[in-house]
Amino acid sequence: AQSVSQHNHHVILSEAASLELGCNYSYGGTVNLFWYVQYPGQHLQLLLKYFSGDPLVKGIKGFEAEFIKSKFSFNLRKPSVQWSDTAEYFCAVTRTSYDKVIFGPGTSLSVIP
Amino acid sequence: KAGVTQTPRYLIKTRGQQVTLSCSPISGHRSVSWYQQTPGQGLQFLFEYFSETQRNKGNFPGRFSGRQFSNSRSEMNVSTLELGDSALYLCASSWTGDEKLFFGSGTQLSVL
């Protein structure tokens, strides 16, 4: 069965530190990959997505992610975090042809001013 | 454009009861997915409806069911509630189901 794992349950960083959140998926075929973010008290919203093409994708608020097919990974990065990045981050995957979107367990990020 | 609307926002039920949750997708979206969110478990996929048909189903017991109406509005029903059903139930809509999802605020269900 398709599954998504995220390396860290909770990450604590100081402002201006660099961020990398790990994500691995189990499906071996063609996939669509996503990172979603849930800020405190807000809806889940899309940060970025990868469907095809350049494996380095850029999203909103300075986030980027790199798809490494050989490692089944889609890690999220940001060079310098801000307090406002405090949120829960979810990696998600779906196969093409209208399959269900499966989410990872999430990583809670706390940024200390 | 109005976002995804879920009602009610909060629900308190007792074990053994049943509950119905409602989701109105963004206008024009034909796919509606339901997720159960609990601390530590993340989002667990329940089911997805597209044009009134259940297209995908997660690994939940048959007590969890859903349907979609011709206007794309969707409902999910949980019968014979158990304490473990306490969770935030999220609805998400999209044009076709495998691209960007738009989430509602969720219904927080507490089972006592």
- DSSP summary, beta strand count of chain A: 12
Helical content band of chain B: under 10%
Instruction: Give the oligomeric state of the chains in this entry, treating copies of one chain as homo and distinct chains as hetero.
Output: heterodimer
Shape of chain A: globular
**Distance separating the two termini of chain A:** 41 Å
Explain what the structure shows:
- The complex is a heterodimer of chains A (113) and B (112).
- Chain A has 113 residues and is mostly beta strands.
- Chain A has strands at residues 4-6, 10-14, 19-21, 23-25, 31-38, 44-50, 56-58, 64-68, 73-78, 87-95, 102-103, 107-112.
- Chain A has no helices and twelve strands.
- In chain A, a hairpin with a 6-residue loop joins strand 10 and strand 11.
- Chain B has 112 residues and is mainly β.
- Chain B is built from no helices and eleven strands.
- Chain B is globular.
- The model of chain B has no long low-confidence stretch (mean pLDDT 94).
- At the A-B interface, strand 5, strand 6, strand 10 and strand 11 of A face strand 5 of B.
Question: How are the SSEs placed, and which strands pair?
Answer:
The complex is a heterodimer of chains A (113) and B (112).
Chain A (H helix, E strand, L loop, with lengths): L3 E3 L3 E5 L4 E3 L1 E3 L5 E8 L5 E7 L5 E3 L5 E5 L4 E6 L8 E9 L6 E2 L3 E6 L1
Parallel strand pairs in A: 2-12
Antiparallel strand pairs in A: 1-4, 3-9, 5-6, 5-10, 7-8, 8-9, 10-11, 10-12
Chain B lengths: L4 E3 L2 E4 L5 E6 L6 E8 L3 E9 L2 E5 L6 E5 L5 E5 L8 E8 L7 E2 L3 E5 L1
